[in-house]
Design brief:
Helices cover about 15% and strands about 20% of the residues. By secondary structure, it is an alpha+beta fold. The chain has a five-stranded mixed β-sheet with strand order 2-1-5-3-4.
Length: about 110
């Protein structure tokens, strides 16, 4: 199992177990995090934007050009922002910490 830490909108930290091969978006949604992912991984939205902890960012593979384009549309994006639908969890990402941006307002109004 891989441990993922979510820092929620209220600042609360939740540690969640995930399986290698899971997408971060699916893990977040199963945990009740407010990430919509309305494009279902088709790179047509930025509603699953997360901010990766600076110390963890280098452990991720580089984003694709499409992901970078989508991040340009994300509210509250930072230099360590990524789309949760594009993060495939592996053993190398055990202990990954991500923050749900406070500025996010997805189609569900969260």
């Amino acid at each position: 199992m891989i441990q993922v830490r979510f820092i929620g909108l209220d600042g609360a930290v939740r540690e969640v177990a995930a399986n290698p091969g899971d997408r971060l978006l699916e893990v977040a949604q199963a945990d009740g995090q407010p990430l919509e992912g309305t494009c279902e991984g088709q790179m047509a939205c930025s509603t699953c934007h997360v901010i990766v902890a600076a110390e963890d960012f280098a452990r991720l593979p580089p984003p694709s050009e499409d992901e970078e384009d989508m991040l340009d549309l994300a509210a509250g994006a930072t230099r360590t922002s990524r789309l949760a639908c594009q993060i495939l969890l592996t053993d190398a990402l055990d202990g990954l910490t991500v923050r749900i941006p406070g500025e996010v307002r997805n189609m569900q109004g969260r």
